Amino acid sequence: MIVVGLLFAFFKQDTFIILATAFIGAYAIILGIDMFARTGFADSVRSFMDGNHDIGYQTNRDVYIMLGAMIILFIIGVLFQRRYHTNHFGPTVGPEAGEKRRRFWGRRRLGDV
Questions:
Q1: What gap in Å lies between CA 39 and CA 80, rounded to an integer?
Q2: Number of domains within the chain
Q3: CA separation for the pair 17, 36 (Å, rounded)
Q4: Domain-embedded: residue 111
Q5: Three-state SS across the chain?
Q6: Residue 59 domain-assigned?
Q7: Residue 76 belongs to domain spanning
Q8: Predicted pLDDT at 23
Q9: Would you say residue 110 lies in a domain?
Q10: How far is CA 34 from the centre of its chain?
Q11: Contacts of 64 (CB under 8 A, 6+ apart)
């Protein structure tokens, strides 16, 4: 899986960054909400990182609601970032990308028509 992730990141950099930042953002928001709501979502991290595995972690309805909310926030984050970056930065490969860069910098290079 590491090799697949590395290849995906190398060839699809824009998509990889959007997916990663949307996931981390959604997770951080839900983890922050759980610090106030105390649903038990944060205990999953503690039980995963604990080397002794002494914590008796039990999932409940509230944890599943937080996981569902995290998935929804992840999807919203991906859609928002995809739309924002496509509209503001345009394509990063292909013939349209060169034209977009020339218009952005407001000048032409030698050999540009």
A1: 28
A2: 1
A3: 29
A4: no
A5: CHHHHHHHHHHCHHHHHHHHHHHHHHHHHHHHHHHHHCCCHHHHHHHHHCCCCCCCCCCCHHHHHHHHHHHHHHHHHHHHHHHHHHHHHCCCCCHHHHHHHHHHHCCCCCCCC
A6: yes
A7: 2-105
A8: 95
A9: no
A10: 20
A11: none
Instruction: Tell me how far CA of residue 41 lies from CA of 20, 25, 70, 97, in angstroms.
Output: 20, 15, 11, 43
In a domain, 113, yes or no: no
**Which residue has tokens 């991290």?**
45
Residues 6+ apart with CB under 8 A from 73: 25, 26, 29, 30
Tokens at residue 91, please?
């394509």
As a whole number of angstroms, the distance between CA 26 and CA 18 comes to 12
Query: Nearest-5° angle of CA 23, CA 4, CA 26?
Result: 0
Question: Which residues of the chain fall below pLDDT 50?
Answer: 101, 103-105
